[in-house]
Amino acid sequence: MGWWPFSSSKSQDSSKDSLGVTDNSDTSSSTSKKPVFLEDIPPKFEDKSQRQLQNAQNQQQQQQQPGMGQQIKEAFNTISVDDFKFESISKIPCFREAGLSGFSAMFVFGSVMLFYHKDFRRAANWGFGGLMLGSIFGWEQCNNTRRNGLKNVQLAQEKFQQKQMEKYMKEREEIENSKK
After folding, report:
1. Where is there biased composition of kind Low complexity (predicted)?
2. pTM score, two decimals?
3. pLDDT tens, 16-26?
């Protein structure tokens, strides 16, 4: 992750984009540029043994339908230690906002209860409750903001496409009128 200062990844080559594809604009400037879709890009990590293992597992699954216990076992096998590293967790949208609002609520609830009741145990309980409530509310608020933002982007894209279509139809109409 580029913005995290303690990231273990090295600085990426400036000629590569985020998918690892090099930009050949200087070598193929005469040819027309075609859009590159995700399906057109080869996988970064080609592991033949992993593919053979997956094919064998798929064949076994086709021969027998797994029970609920086997499905749970397979789900637990997909979990790795890397899933719980800070780099992975910090990539979750709204994680930072939820954590900050939760810790703020924990500090406020805990300190108010400590000053008012002078009981550390009660203040710790209220602080933990504030952490949970603040995190939940922060998470929901951030997700709501993201949803609204995505709706606005979709509306803007639809309006842009509509204007482009109107412009195209107007130009086409002008061409047809000029032919007559």
Report:
1. 22-32, 51-70
2. 0.48
3. 444 454 444 44
